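Recap from last week: sequence in, structure out.
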Amino acid sequence: MIVTVLIFIGVAIIMHIISVRKMNEAINETNGIIRTYHHLNVVKEAINVNMKLAILYMVLFGILVVLLIIKVMDGMPMTGAALALFLFGVITFPVSLHGKKYENKIRNMKVEADDPQIAAKYQDYLKQWSGAAFQLRD
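Predicted structure tokens:
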């Protein structure tokens, strides 16, 4: 079971890396400032990747819990299942905290656009991002 847990941890870490890279690309391409619709779309793509991977992370965790319940029902000690969940959390939690730094950079980007619709759309994206959805809607 330890190999399975390590695979789940590895997948979770890879998902976090993908999300951080996409957000970092958006920050670098815009220099942290949204000036154009192109910049807004770059930020939107980064947020969408983050939202999708967050949902997939929850699904991954749910699958791990179901597998552990099945293993416990097959005779695995409950302490082993608890240890597996603890290990998953202890390893993925710091990785997710690292990702939060990039999320905060995206959330706190400046908008210096001539078109006020860009700022309004960015604020709408931030509002949607704080809710539960698979991706941003226009």
